[in-house]
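Hi R.,

Quick one: here's the Isoprenylcysteine carboxylmethyltransferase family protein sequence you asked about.
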Amino acid sequence: MLFTIFLAFILTQRIFELFVARNNEIWMKSRGALEFGKTHYVFMVLIHSLFFVVYTGEVFLLEKQISPVWPFLLIIFILTQTGRIWALSSLGKYWNTKIIVLPNADIVKKGPYRFLKHPNYVIVTIEFIVIPLMFQAYFTAFIFSFLNVLILSIRIPAEEKALKELTEYENEFLKSNRFVPNIFKKW
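And here's the predicted structure, written out as tokens:
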């Protein structure tokens, strides 16, 4: 019962995000945005879709139970969801599941993007570990964490290349380090 509620919450969230992404895609393309990475996007969708199939199968078929450390994992999950909302809302209409770039658009430097180039990918990487561990689905955690690293090793360079081609992305990053926040900058 707990697994079903947990899974339903995540799936509902992902379906809602797909509607948001589709609306954002229409908005951006109507303003001249271009799409990149179509060939790898199919594999990204496949990985994310199979994640839920394998996860559900592992939990039900192997009769997995909630983890003994579930309160700790739940806290991490809640933090990732908070981070996800922060990242997506910071990008606003520019957020998408696809690589869609509006030429000459301003680079988003608010929210978690003040600190990291790709905070949502960090969040997804954590989710691929935490979500399966919540119900002791170790196979799912291992396999899909590995697949996620593989797809992101293709996705991130493709996204960075597209942003460099159509925006001032590279110049913006020469101004500051977005991997380590410079908390002493004002001093």
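Strands lie at 34-36, 99-101.

Cheers,
M.
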